[in-house]
Structure of Subtilisin-like protease fibronectin type-III domain-containing protein:
Amino acid sequence: MAPGARIAVYKALYTFGGYMSDVVAAVDQAVEDGVDILSLSAGPSSVPSGDSAFLDVLELQLLFATKAGVLVVQAAGNGGPSSSSVISFSPWITSVAASITDRKYNTTIVLGNGQSFTGTGLSPPTDAEIDYNIAAAADVCVRNATIITVDSCQNPESFIRPLVYKRLIICTYTFEYEYEAASIATVADTMMEIGAAGFIITLDPNIGPEVVKGTMLTLQIPAIVLNDMQASSALWEYYNANTIRDKRGQAVVFAAKARILDGRQAIYTGQAPVVASYSSRGPDVKNALMQTVDVLKPNVMAPGTSIWAAWSPDSEGDKYVKGQSFALISGTSMATPHIAGIAALIKQRHPKWGPDAITSAMMTTADRTGHSGAPILAESSNELIHATPFDFGAGSINVSQAMKPGLIFNVTFKHYVQFLCAVPGIDVKSVKKAVGVACPTKNKFKCSDLNLASVTISNLVGKRKVIRYVKNVSHKEKYTVHIKEPLGVNITIIPESFRIKRRGSRRLRLIFEAIEATNAYTFGEMVLKGKKHIVRVPLAVYVGSTSSS
């Protein structure tokens, strides 16, 4: 994202995870060293215990980092598509959701009879236009080998070398792979050691259509994973029809042939980003009782599925890519560095902007639709559904627009303290002990009053007034405010239009009125349209009751 940025790395995590004290110490050292942006592809395994997640030791450490002018970018978590699965809680943190991109890698195998099947496998092709003989692992193994072990192709000692040399070997995705007793990486090592031309992995009918683990491994030998039961069955049918066996059932003539095409060529479909199923969802919660709060999480979405990046060959973090210098990995941990890098570019363009301004710029300019204008979708359990702000926050990051947002929403440390003092269930003494600042004696501040580039109301009863302040970071411009109201809510905006000078500020008053109890979150949008800028603010409201009495 930002190839010219300097990178400082702090070791705080290990293969087993890590300790909070190490992470806090790393954050503290990074801030002391003068970093501009903290990229945290890590988070707690669950909602912290105690009165509030916002008073957890890491959340507070990140608040002080923000106070020091450091933008904190954190992975939202990989607990999706479950509701309230985010593990990045606080409003001073930019929490990142992950999307699937339009880049695909497909590998094709062409059989001797002209049939072809598509699968996965980041591997080179077999030589030129030559067809290679196919042999099933069970037909080229030593006599004392167990068939289950042989089918998974994990041990080079199980094979008869003259029978496998320069042939494509059929292996089977058995239960051993599911329980991680076998891996595609080991298959590749085995095939290279025994001199095979390549390998084909078919699905075991006893397992069914599983998601095959390790298919995004970069391979040095031609290979394809047929992760489709129909293709697997068709391959076996062709192989058996062209293999001659003796009276004992042993294969004596291998007449089935095939060639594997290059699987390293990317295909771009042009489809819009889709929220990945694993990407953690909102609404945000304030404690382990899973009580929701007036904060939108995640904040923004970036590509997180099948992302190429440098990888340490010594890393034990993922056995599928052990020994590799580059890896193709998925997760919100991959989406996070995208946002951190883009934030670095914004910081370079606007060096005086604080963390709040940078986050605001990314959120208000994010895309809610694809290139065709259709709404962005989200992977649910078994289907694609329309995405909401609890799936992608403000939307999918739009880098060029984030550089010139027009208006920004500023938040200071004082405002974050007021927010903490307003969180229901938090004792004011706890806030002073945690941040060293006492709560105001007459605090009329509500959590929804925090000047974020979003509005979330976790329990609207009757009416609520919400104030937002915008600052102009461009030239003098006139803006018209348009409201798309959440279901069950009537919204009055004052003013409906305004002129704002360069570096000027404007107060916006939104009055939310409950007109129908939805007992569920519904979503809307406030759009500020100028001649050169469009500023979008997501709205999320839970209507508990239409009466304030």
